[in-house]
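Researcher: Quick test of sequence recovery. Tokens follow.
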């Protein structure tokens, strides 16, 4: 049987850590998100944005144009156990070279917008093969962003790009690292066009890193697009609330510590 002191410490630890719910393993395999392969809809309670597959050909994707190789299919987010978890499904291979002169554009970085006002105060770097600024999985506050080829009207106009869709980090202050994983082999069997190949990203980062960058607990958006910004996708993970059960456990832990202190004084 646990001593009163050990029991109280155990309860306090549980209260501080929060209830993580179903475990998400950051490995690029999205099976633990409970995603329906036809509709892209995940397990209930996970926030998501879904866009239909394009298949072959050239389509308006928002803010620009492209085919499956530059399509963002779905994005997911949830907050659990003191961490933000994000998953992305796209037709864009992370290993695509960033060679604009050859009409080839690599993956952009994840951008977080506190307050959902288009300011994007935090960036998570995705840099598999393309050089450039930062380190893979690095978390950067006070970022400077690059932008894509398209203006807000969907016209090719790199001199006047749509600044509501940043593409990749040019600079920033590194404050930590996210756990990041992505696949580089295409997987079929998802979406309206089952023959399309898809690539998956998964990441998690501590909420403390968001707070270091200025997050006050209010709503925020997470965005991703390629360096050309052919297709930008945004998800809101939902309003952050304390994990269920944390406050009762914290109270029980404090009560246990108080009881142990009284027993110690009587001894």
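Model:
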């Amino acid at each position: 049987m646990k001593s009163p002191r050990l029991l109280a410490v155990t309860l306090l630890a549980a209260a501080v850590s929060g209830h993580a719910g179903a475990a998400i393993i950051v490995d690029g395999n999205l099976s633990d998100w409970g995603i329906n392969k036809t509709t892209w809809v995940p397990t209930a309670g996970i926030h998501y944005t879904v866009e239909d597959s394009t298949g072959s050909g050239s389509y308006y994707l928002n803010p620009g144009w492209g085919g499956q190789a530059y399509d963002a299919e779905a994005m997911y987010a949830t907050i659990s156990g003191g961490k933000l978890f994000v998953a992305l499904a796209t037709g864009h291979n992370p290993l695509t070279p960033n060679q604009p002169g050859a009409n080839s554009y690599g993956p952009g970085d994840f951008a977080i917008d506190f307050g959902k006002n288009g300011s994007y105060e935090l960036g998570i770097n995705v840099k598999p093969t393309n050089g450039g600024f930062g380190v893979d999985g690095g978390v950067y506050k006070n970022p400077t962003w690059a932008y894509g080829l398209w203006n807000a009207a969907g016209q090719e106009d790199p001199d006047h790009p749509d600044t509501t869709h940043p593409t990749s980090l040019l600079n920033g202050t590194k404050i930590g690292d996210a756990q990041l994983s992505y696949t580089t082999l295409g997987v079929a069997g998802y979406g309206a066009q089952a023959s399309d190949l898809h690539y998956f990203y998964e990441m998690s980062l501590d909420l403390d890193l968001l707070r270091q960058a200025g997050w006050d607990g209010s709503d925020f958006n997470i965005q991703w697009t390629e360096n050309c910004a052919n297709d930008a996708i945004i998800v809101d993970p939902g309003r952050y609330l304390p994990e269920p059960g944390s406050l009762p456990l914290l109270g029980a832990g404090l009560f246990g510590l108080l009881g142990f202190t009284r027993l110690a004084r009587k001894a």
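Residues 89 and 200 are 5 Å apart (CA to CA).
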